[in-house]
Amino acid sequence: PEPVTWDHLDHEDDLEKAVQHIAKSICESDSFKTFQSCLILYHAVAMAINQRDSPEAFKTFATLSYWIVNSIFLLLLLLKYFSHGSFGDFWDNGGNKFEMLLIACGLIGSIISSPFFIRLPSVRLYYLMDYFPTLQYLLYSALSSIRAVWNLTAFIFVLILSFAVAGRYIFKEKMDPITRSNFGSLPIALLTTFQLVIGDSWSGVVYSGLDAMDGTFAQLGAAIYLIGWFTFASLIISNLFVATIIENFKIHDTVAKIAQPGRLYFARKMIRDAYRNLWLLSRQSQMLKEMSQVPRRSSALSDHPQSFSQEVLHHISGSKHKRVVLTSKFVQVAQNSLIRFSYNIDETKKKEEERTLMFFNKDNSIRRFATWLARQAWFDLIVYNSIFLSCVLLTLTPPAPDIHLITDFPNVISASVSRALTWFLN
């Protein structure tokens, strides 16, 4: 930014612009960033030495450091406010809101001596990711994928709830005396369904379900239900998470950034490029000398330097130069024609073969209405709410009496603890 001269500040608007200009130049300077990073490290060290068994001098130093650091960050935030010029521009920046929250937590924690609020500003350590571009890119990718992961988690919860309610109607209380992974109550049914999702002892749940059912067809239905849900969860749900991570984290770009060389490579590259440019200059001067020594066959060439250069080019590259150029151009034109012809054929086939359910083509009114309906946000909301409401209604009328968790859970815990102690002592 251009320097500001105080001689030209005749009005209040000019003074405000000058203050904004100076504050903005300070905030955008490298010294400001370095000072802020050192302040963050100093704050982290102060929090690290303030432990329960630390000497009293360390605790006093840490407490004083909290007040100093939070006060300095408050001044830096005021400087950023002046650099924006207006409160609206300042408030539109999410980083400023987050910094205000951290400063408030730090000051409140110092006033009420709350360890939680005092250590909450340690989140500022993530600001140091600017010095590590790869880690910073991974952090931004993780933050940008929160919404997609949240939507996927909500969808999977609806699926788990649906299968848990269906399992309650299929098995009722029949698996209760056999195993703890049963469908006797809604919480235990949700836990059992989640156990099948992660694949923890899923075969034991399947065998218990088969033992609880009477008859061949009942056992076949139970096996189809349990194995079908486990297969769906293993192949579909886990891959949905992987696909969401790949799509939002941009694995290709992340790997490319990780593979980027460091400062040492750039130093070597600079030296190598300088040596190569020096060699090219010396080679160019040598070629000019060699070309100046080429004998001219007639005095007419001196009057036509273009024809002389063409002759030198023909002398250097050989007599087949023009023939190779013409051949390569012909091959390129032929290849472009073939590619364009095959592309038109593929597009024609797609237009002819593109049908839904073998009846509805692209211009069909029913298909266009279904496409429009599926793209509406309220349609997805109605579907999810309908599924959730049906699960709630089915839960309100359980097919079998629930297990009394309050009375049975302590017994299960005590039995497990006694079994673990017996195994450990033996």
Q: Notable features of this structure?
A:
2 strands, mainly alpha, 426 residues, 19 helices, two-stranded antiparallel ribbon, 1% strand
Describe the protein's architecture and organization:
The N and C termini lie far apart (77 Å). The chain has a two-stranded antiparallel sheet. A hairpin with a 3-residue loop joins strand 1 (355-356) and strand 2. 77% of the residues lie in helices and 1% in strands. It contains 19 helices and two strands. Helix 2 (30-49) runs antiparallel to helix 3. With 426 residues, the chain is an all-alpha fold. The longest helix is centred in the middle third of the chain and has 34 residues, at 216-249. The chain has helices at residues 12-27, 30-49, 56-84, 87-92, 94-112, 115-119, 133-144, 146-171, 186-198, 202-212, 216-249, 251-258, 263-292, 300-303, 305-317, 321-353, 365-374, 377-396, 405-425; strands at 355-356, 360-361. It is extended and about 90 Å long.
| Inertia-based shape | extended
Strand order of the largest sheet: 1-2
Q: Proportion of β residues?
A: under 5%
* Share of residues in helices: over 70%
Largest sheet report: 2 strands, antiparallel
Mean pLDDT: 76
Radius of gyration: 37 Å
Helix and strand run: HHHHHHHHHHHHHHHHEEHHH
